[in-house]
């Protein structure tokens, strides 16, 4: 019971219950808050010798509030690999390489994550380097001018995909004020201006790369007590910041919106139907109910999927989902249609399917199958420390604790057919709707 | 503990018998990998794509007793999804289930493989998906994968590896269910079958599976085909013309090295040093992206690695008798395309001429030993690698690498690099817009100086002077342009 002893020694730690049968996130974990606001979550699993280290900064493209600065959270993720006095980039890379670490980072709307998986013997050294770059990152104007070209390269490789363009236009059309209007990649003109943003980049680091925005997750062959001591040793000098981002609220949408995209190369046409949807919650049922509707309506065995993809074969891809977000976002459905002439009827089929949830109560049996699918899907993903930490990181970005995972799954269990109907009636309304079509044609 | 119920020596000798690769553990997840040692290289002429279509007629279609819809309804509460992947010489059907649902799942899974329904509507849907993959997904939305796949077609033109795994559009349009059934009957046999299972299954489960799969024809152990590509006598460049913002490039040539070959570990060290996939420590990455900001990344490969833009680690069950050496240059701004290509060749030349610095050699060896263990961190990957090891006739992959690397010297790497790598007699594929201009530049070997948005150290500027005139080594007739809608046709 090493785990329990460690917890009793440090009052600020919380031990979350171990392996109860009905918990979808079955791992006991240790959550500890340091005085500077940094949070550490240690998740021991049965993995041997391997640990996954995820550092979650609760900053993403949502935090890009100033005009002309879209894509900055992502640029900053790149800058974090540019080194410090103590560990210049080549030295950092050399040590990570020596450790056989598979390491990388990603940025999304609500978070930036730095992650690596490696042998536990290397954890102390890697934790030292992480602490150093989070506190002492150092780069010149020439460095950011070069690195922002790598970001432009990333924009370029993504730009070959019509689906990336479709996502960009859906967000751009559905939102007016909220920063979810722009994608994490940012507008091309802002990406092209990044080389000139040296001063702003320093300000961005000063605002957000602070302990109160940061959570460290260690999963795998990990002893919480030892890791707390290790993190305290490396991160205790890190100073809390004072910045409070003012994310603009999205005004209520009052009428349906529509946009058309002309794609320069040959492609099958796409139609996307989106509705404004609530923020992620582990206490209110609406977002959980909409998540279940996405499965009920668009999973492979759903009636519409069967009709459009399997029987009529008008569509070769059909997806519906509500992405978990800190602020209200979108419930979005995308279909890739085989013939342009069918675009209209596919769009109508999607709308009438969603409207159907407003009129009819779904059967308890169907709802039960979806709930089972959710639980088993989750369980099947928890097969190594890297995955466990990666999943926890997504939820930590939303509520800063893995505890929200089990709460959210309890919420799914509690959703009734009436809740499904109520959520459909509330959110599948014309005044919250955005429809975007993408077809081949037009200039590049 | 790893337990492979398989005697390597008997692997290719036992006639008409399925092989078992098992990895029992306490995990509540049970993973299946059913691998047939056949694939796109066995597609008959004019039937390119039939192997892949056969796989999807098993993984994404009805059985004799159940429609596809009934199968999806049954699997849905279990959250099970059956996947297929067809490479040149391996056709894999895989799935994972929670042990709670093992029996219910397996009953259906077994019939999907052994009693396929061959319904016309399933055939039409799967064939459309395959055509749309080639025409829309590959040609229309992913310039990097497009370039890499065209490179394979160019290198192996006229050989069994010479068409995309998904086939050719014209062949798919003419294909019938009878073609798929014929492929199934001939190639999905016990002789070609490896049954892989991992996780917390009951101890008698593998034997039960083996017995069930005796329903397949015994088949013949098909003799190895002559898969070697025509020898490349000069560098040739294929420019794929499409409307797109930037320029994606890949180049390479066949190598006579695969897992189990004497030079595999040596060449792996060289590849890792030059450009480990998605690592920011590789030489190409450091010099092309890090120092010059040319693009998002640049990497090197000695084994097939599809879906590299989405995956950090390579997928298992892509074992091949023939591999290529390849450099992947991620999309660059059009004015820098010629320079970027030259710089990649310059770096390759430097590796061949100078070998790997001592410090990098030690670091790279250390990386590979530890990284090999990381590759096996999921049960599904461990199982996949165990099957590949059986096919290549090597021990468990991490042990194999550890042992091979322990004996390896820096001189071994230099020798292997000089033996297998070169900067001439290459195939280069470039995807971009207005390629005629680039074609002229390439064909005339015109200088391609580069300008920067910030001051650069003198050593970079000096190196640029060499790179801007570095000879790719082609003449006008060796640089051709193909419109994108003609590839994979």
Overview in brief:
The complex is a heterodimer of chains A (444) and B (489). Chain A is of the alpha+beta class and 444 residues long.
Describe the structure.
The complex is a heterodimer of chains A (444) and B (489). Chain A has 444 residues and is of the alpha+beta class. Chain A folds into two domains: 2-235, Metalloenzyme, LuxS/M16 peptidase-like (Cytochrome Bc1 Complex, Chain A, domain 1, 2-Layer Sandwich); 257-440, Cytochrome Bc1 Complex, Chain A, domain 1 (2-Layer Sandwich), CATH 3.30.830. Chain A contains 16 helices and twelve strands. Chain A has helices at 2-9, 72-79, 89-98, 123-136, 141-158, 162-174, 188-193, 198-208, 224-235, 285-298, 303-311, 343-359, 364-381, 385-399, 403-414, 417-427; strands spanning 13-16, 29-33, 39-44, 50-57, 102-107, 112-119, 214-220, 257-263, 270-277, 315-322, 329-337, 433-440. In chain A, the strands form two sheets. A seven-stranded mixed β-sheet of chain A has the order 1-2-3-7-4-6-5, sandwiched between helices. A five-stranded mixed β-sheet of chain A has the order 8-12-9-11-10, with helices on both faces. In chain A, strand 5 and strand 6 (112-119) form a beta hairpin. The model of chain A is unreliable at 1-11 (pLDDT under 50). Chain B has 489 residues and is of the alpha/beta class. Chain B has two domains: 8-215, Metalloenzyme, LuxS/M16 peptidase-like (Cytochrome Bc1 Complex, Chain A, domain 1, 2-Layer Sandwich); 236-486, Metalloenzyme, LuxS/M16 peptidase-like (Cytochrome Bc1 Complex, Chain A, domain 1), CATH 3.30.830.10. A six-stranded mixed β-sheet of chain B has the order 8-9-7-10-6-11, with helices on both faces. A five-stranded mixed β-sheet of chain B has the order 1-5-2-4-3, sandwiched between helices. In chain B, helix 12 (358-375) packs antiparallel against helix 14. Chain B is globular and about 70 Å long. The termini of chain B are far apart. Chains A and B meet through helix 3, strand 6, helix 5, helix 11 and helix 13 of A and helix 2, strand 4, helix 4, helix 10 and strand 9 of B.
């Amino acid at each position: 019971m090493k785990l329990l002893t460690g917890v009793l020694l440090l009052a600020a730690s919380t031990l979350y219950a171990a392996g109860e049968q009905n918990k979808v996130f079955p791992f006991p974990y240790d959550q500890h808050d340091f005085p500077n606001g940094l949070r550490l979550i240690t998740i021991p699993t049965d993995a041997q010798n391997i640990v996954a280290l995820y550092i979650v900064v609760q900053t993403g493209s949502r935090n890009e509030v100033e005009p002309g600065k879209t894509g900055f959270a992502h640029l900053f993720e790149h800058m974090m690999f540019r080194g410090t006095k103590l560990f210049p980039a080549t030295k950092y890379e050399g040590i990570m390489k020596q450790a056989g670490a598979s390491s990388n980072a990603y940025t999304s709307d609500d978070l930036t994550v730095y992650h690596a998986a490696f042998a536990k013997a290397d954890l102390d050294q890697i934790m030292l380097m992480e602490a150093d770059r989070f506190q002492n990152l150092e780069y010149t104007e020439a460095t950011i001018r070069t690195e922002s070209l790598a970001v432009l390269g990333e924009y370029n490789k993504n730009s070959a995909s019509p689906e990336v363009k479709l996502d960009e236009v859906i967000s751009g059309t559905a939102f007016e004020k909220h920063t979810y209007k722009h994608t994490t990649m940012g507008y091309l003109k802002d990406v092209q201006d990044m080389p000139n943003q040296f001063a702003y980049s320093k300000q961005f680091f000063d605002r957000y790369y602070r302990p109160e925005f940061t959570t460290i997750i260690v999963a795998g062959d990990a002893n919480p007590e030892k890791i707390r001591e290790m993190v305290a040793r490396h991160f205790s000098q890190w100073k809390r910041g004072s910045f409070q981002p003012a994310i603009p609220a999205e005004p209520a949408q009052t009428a349906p919106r529509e946009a058309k995209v002309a794609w320069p190369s040959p492609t099958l046409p796409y139609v996307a139907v989106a509705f404004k949807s609530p923020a992620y919650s582990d206490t209110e049922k609406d977002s959980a109910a909409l998540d279940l509707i996405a499965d009920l309506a668009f999973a492979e065995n759903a009636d519409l999927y069967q009709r459009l993809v399997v029987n009529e074969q008008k569509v070769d891809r059909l997806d519906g989902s509500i992405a978990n977000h800190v602020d209200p976002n979108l419930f979005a459905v995308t279909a890739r249609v085989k013939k342009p002439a069918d675009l209209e009827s596919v769009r109508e089929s999607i709308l009438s399917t969603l409207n159907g949830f407003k009129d009819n109560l779904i059967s308890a049996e169907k709802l039960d199958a979806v709930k089972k699918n959710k639980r088993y899907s989750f369980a099947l993903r928890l097969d190594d420390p890297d995955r466990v930490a990666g999943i926890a990181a997504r939820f930590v970005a939303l509520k800063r604790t893995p505890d929200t995972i089990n709460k959210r799954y309890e919420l799914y269990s509690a959703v009734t057919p009436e809740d499904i109907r109520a959520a459909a009636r509330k959110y599948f309304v014309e005044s919250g709707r955005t429809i975007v079509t993408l077809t081949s044609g037009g200039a590049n | 503990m790893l337990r492979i119920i398989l005697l390597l020596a008997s692997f290719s000798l036992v006639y008409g018998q399925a092989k078992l690769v098992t990895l029992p553990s306490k995990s509540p997840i049970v993973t299946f990998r059913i691998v047939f040692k056949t694939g796109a290289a066995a597609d008959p002429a004019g039937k390119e794509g039939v192997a892949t279509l056969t796989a999807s007629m098993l993984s994404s279609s009805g059985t004799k007793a159940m429609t596809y819809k009934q199968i999806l309804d049954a699997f849905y509460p279990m959250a099970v999804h059956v996947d297929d992947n067809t490479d040149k010489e391996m056709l894999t059907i895989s799935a994972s289930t929670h042990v709670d649902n093992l029996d219910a799942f397996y009953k259906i899974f077994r019939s999907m493989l052994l009693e396929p329904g061959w319904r016309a509507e399933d055939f039409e849907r799967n064939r459309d998906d395959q055509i749309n993959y080639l025409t829309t997904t590959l040609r229309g939305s992913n310039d990097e994968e497009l370039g890499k796949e065209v490179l394979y077609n160019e290198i192996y033109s006229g050989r069994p590896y010479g068409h995309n795994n998904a086939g050719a559009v014209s062949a798919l349009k003419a294909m019938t269910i009878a073609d798929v059934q014929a492929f199934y009957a001939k190639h999905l046999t016990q002789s070609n079958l490896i049954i892989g299972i991992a996780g917390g299954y009951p101890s008698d489960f593998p034997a039960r599976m083996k017995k069930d799969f005796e329903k397949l024809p015994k088949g013949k152990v098909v003799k190895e085909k002559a898969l070697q590509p025509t020898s490349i006598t000069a560098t040739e460049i294929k420019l794929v013309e499409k409307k797109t913002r930037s320029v994606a490039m890949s180049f390479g040539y066949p190598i006579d090295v695969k897992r189990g070959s004497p030079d595999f570990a040596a060449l792996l060290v060289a590849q890792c040093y030059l450009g480990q996939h998605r690592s920011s420590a590789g030489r190409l990455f450091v010099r092309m992206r890090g120092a010059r900001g040319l693009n998002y990344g640049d990497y090197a490969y000695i084994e097939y690695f599809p879906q590299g833009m989405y995956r950090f680690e390579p997928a298992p069950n892509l074992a091949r008798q023939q591999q290529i050496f390849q450099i992947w240059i991620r999309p660059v701004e059009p004015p820098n395309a010629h320079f970027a290509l030259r710089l990649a060749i310059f770096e390759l030349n430097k590796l061949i001429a100078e070998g790997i610095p001592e410090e990098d050699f030690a670091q790279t060896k250390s990386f590979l030993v530890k990284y090999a263990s990381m590759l096996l961190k999921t049960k599904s990957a461990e199982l996949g690698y165990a099957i590949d090891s059986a096919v290549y006739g090597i021990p468990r992959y991490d042990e194999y690498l550890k042992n091979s690397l322990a004996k390896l010297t820096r001189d071994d790497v230099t020798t292997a690099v000089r033996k297998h790598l070169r900067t001439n007699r290459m195939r280069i594929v470039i995807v971009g817009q207005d390629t005629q201009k680039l074609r002229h530049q390439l064909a005339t070997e015109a200088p391609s100086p580069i300008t920067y948005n910030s001051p650069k150290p003198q050593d970079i500027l000096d190196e640029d002077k060499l790179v801007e005139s570095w000879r790719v080594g082609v003449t006008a007739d060796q640089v051709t342009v193909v419109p994108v809608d003609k590839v994979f046709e």
